[in-house]
Amino acid sequence: MQGELVRWGVIGCAGIAVRQVIPAIQCSKTGTVTAVASRSPVKARQTAAEFGVRKAYDSYEKIVEDPDIDAVYIPLPNHLHREWTIRAAQAGKHVLCEKPIALNSREAQEMVDVCRACGVRLAEAFMYRYHPRYERIREAVKAGEIGEIRTLHGAFSFNNAKDLDNIRYQSEMGGGSIYDVGCYPINAARFLLEQEPIAVTAHAMFSTLHDGVDMSATGLLEFEDGVSLTFECGMWSYGSNELRIVGSEGRIDVPFAYVGKPETLGATILVHDECRELAVPTVDPYVAEIDDFGRSLIANRPQRFDPEESVRNMRVIDACLESARTHTRVSLV
């Protein structure tokens, strides 16, 4: 690294990179964007010019081989996450990879193992969990502020079904609603409960108009002591973006639970009909994500989320997809 800044390369000019992550790196305290790459030379040059980035590459290989890059951000379609994470790691680059980290837990474990063997850091870009409200919510849950936890319900959906060329609707690219948005409530429940589910059941609508991917799904994750997560997700559904944690004495409502403007990222605690807002600072979770990763590199300290956590999350996603396809309850123990 050059001085106290992580020099980032962005592999692919996807919307999430252009709208959120490149601006977040530029606003961070720890990073700078050194290069962007696209298989479209025009898009690479346009993106670099838009953000004042010095280097624009017309291939992913060139950015991975660049000695001036310390870490790469990978917003590529899901089926390319494994390949380019491994290639980046073998070139000595640290990796921040978009969610879901892989197509299955086997791929995820391979990515973790290769990064570890190459001596580089790997993180999955679940930016929502870097916002301080989630740590505050977990503290409230652990402190028993709403009593004993009974259930959680998460919903994340949108309707973009008319865009038939969208990569989310391409089976071989890892399309589908569980991969794209269902992964969020699954991850949030595991984070807040600090345990793994013992079984899952999922039901999905697979659309022949959209290459057979799951366009919407509902699911049940069973945890110990009768605690559960019910979730709904969809890409052909009316929009939703929320999480509710229900206890024996109260509940916590989380609006804009997974994405939203920094000023909207709060939560409400209701106990015995008394309602209060959870006091949290206004923070951009994308910037928080970049700075957590950056500080782990600069100060050589542990990452907030171990990459093995991503493997465990993929095991649950694997089970949800298996359940939806086979119409069976899938045990995880």
UniProtKB/TrEMBL annotation:
Gene3D superfamilies per UniProt: Dihydrodipicolinate Reductase, domain 2 (3.30.360.10), NAD(P)-binding Rossmann-like Domain (3.40.50.720)
This protein's UniProt keywords: Oxidoreductase
Residue span(s) of domain Gfo/Idh/MocA-like oxidoreductase N-terminal: 6-124
InterPro entries reported in the protein's UniProt record: Gfo/Idh/MocA-like_OxRdtase_N (IPR000683), Gfo/Idh/MocA_domain (IPR050984), GFO_IDH_MocA-like_dom (IPR055170), NAD(P)-bd_dom_sf (IPR036291)
Residue ranges of every copy of the GFO/IDH/MocA-like oxidoreductase domain listed in the record: 134-252
UniProt superkingdom: Bacteria
Pfam families attached to this UniProt entry: GFO_IDH_MocA (PF01408), GFO_IDH_MocA_C3 (PF22725)
Family recorded in the similarity comment: Belongs to the Gfo/Idh/MocA family.
Name the UniProt record assigns to this protein: Gfo/Idh/MocA family oxidoreductase
Lineage per the UniProt record: Bacteria, Bacillati, Bacillota, Bacilli, Bacillales
